[in-house]
Amino acid sequence: DTSLAEVNSFSPSMPMSPSSMINQYKFEDEPELRDLFITVDDPESHITAIETFITYRVVTKTSRGEFDSSEYEVRRRYQDFLWLKSKLEEAHPTLIIPPLPEKFIMKGMVERFSDEFIETRRKALHKFLNRIADHPTLTFNEDFKIFLTAQAWELSSHKKQGPGLLSRMGQTVRAVASSVRGGVKNRPEMFTEMNDYMETFSQKINVLDKIAHRIYKEEREYFNEMKEYGPIHTLWSASEEDIADSLKGVASCIDKCCKATEKLMAGLSENLLPILHEYVLYSEILMGVLKRRDQIQSELDSRVDALVNKKTEKDLFSEEIGKLEDKVECANNALKADWDRWKQNMQCDMRSTFTNVAENNLRYYEECLATWESFLTSQTVDLHVEEDSEDRP
């Protein structure tokens, strides 16, 4: 298997294109082990008297024996994805559940229910399900299987079987009580280092996200100005007969650079912005996972303190403490395994994303430079021809 050190080194043998790196890292060694393929596509609008919403087709193909069929097709709305995420968090509190796109988007970016917004969300939902499918534990979750296979009425019926109000209130009260108690006394050093890492990572990824959005905004403003700038030279050429060809040439160059800029913007919006924002959401998820681990640890610590101070019922307390110690150990092991896996995926994603951006920028500037160089060369040739004709007797 490709080690993290190998992924982080720029060795001559390592393919440098993002797609090549991803293929080598994820699928080259064990492609036959993948037995669950999910596609999210075909968004469809639904308008009722109460609300307007979008559903997406979820197609699943699998060779797993626990599935009754090898292929399923269902339609799901965003709320169904939210339900799945909450069930995964409930069943696996110290595993890193992939993020979902937010329900609401930032004002001024794209309009809700526009084609751009729907397509962006579809891609995010597709990635969400496939990240779960590729996870060694989450992929076998029963609620995940029901999400992929149940018809709408079956899923609705299953949702109603969730925890009752009192159970949810109890979970909320325990979470609040845990946060009030303060820091964990016996937190292992490893998880303190994880917490410090995530605080730094969160700051940096948020800064990168803001910078990327600012770059995209500036590119869009530049693109809009060029769209107006080119036609001006075309109109100008109509009133300047002597330099009409040169002005038309400038207009043509601006038009080509305008198209190249539009392509560059598409690369930013499709590749850079979604990945950075996904890891902004991941940083929030990981901080939540670490807090849930601390909550389990805190529950054990409080029981140990109670046992020390209590003279009676020691056997009962000892049994409860034994169960809590097993729970903490399971939580720690789950998070440690998921942490290493997440860091490897994150570093691979970051490398492929920024390599892709660098390659797109190089192509963009080379294309624009070649456009203007070609134009200037043609103008120089024309100027020499005119000078030669003037020198002749």
Automatic annotation (TrEMBL):
GO terms under cellular component: early endosome; phagophore assembly site
Keywords: Protein transport, Transport
Domain PX per the UniProt entry, residue ranges: 34-155
GO MF, one example: phosphatidylinositol binding
Domain of life: Eukaryota
Tagged with keyword Transport: yes
GO BP of this protein: autophagy of mitochondrion; endocytic recycling; piecemeal microautophagy of the nucleus; protein transport; reticulophagy
Family: Belongs to the sorting nexin family.
Protein name: SNX7 protein
Lineage of origin: Eukaryota, Metazoa, Chordata, Craniata, Vertebrata
